[in-house]
Amino acid sequence: MAMVFPAEFHELEPFADWAIQGERARYAKRVASTMEELQAFYDVAFPLLRKGTAYLEQVGLDGIGDQDKHLLWAFCSLVTVAFPVEAWGQPRVPDSGPSSIDAVVEPAV
Description:
Elements: H1 23-32, H2 35-45, H3 49-57, H4 66-88
Helix pairs in contact: 1-4, 2-4
């Protein structure tokens, strides 16, 4: 089976479904997930954030490979789940009703 992420980030493989392109799709996954699922992803991804940032800073966006792209998207998902895990204790923004995120411009990757 092909690895979704670069080998240095093999710990993320069980969370390959978090390598999601687009803020709207990441938000949809977040609100459709349980806190247990968010916490499990966060617990594995957050300790890798510094290493992942350093790794991705060395990758050029022109011609970026699929594994590197998936790693970037997984860390974008980490940003999306951080507040629910660290502050709110729930996938949705507290007391916000039917809120949503509408990104006007997405990165080209």
